[in-house]
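Chapter summary example.
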Amino acid sequence: METFWDWITVFAFAGLVTLLLQRSAEEEPRDHLWQYAPPAVGCALVNYIGNEGYHAPAVVLFVAVVIYIFKVLKVPMPFLK
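The structure predicted for these 81 residues follows.
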């Protein structure tokens, strides 16, 4: 945990895991386990690319990961209401 990319991807991954655990405890889960794989792999790629010094592609990929989480996993966005 030395770089900005380490911190930001660990926080994103922790949020993703929390969402998975919360939703897996529901009576009728609203999504499938495989749907969490793309953003998890995306976090790993963002971390690697960012740590290699390619900051612009890392930012673009991180934004794509966040959009995926909000659109595909349908996380509520109360700040946009």
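To summarize the output: The chain has a mean pLDDT of 92.
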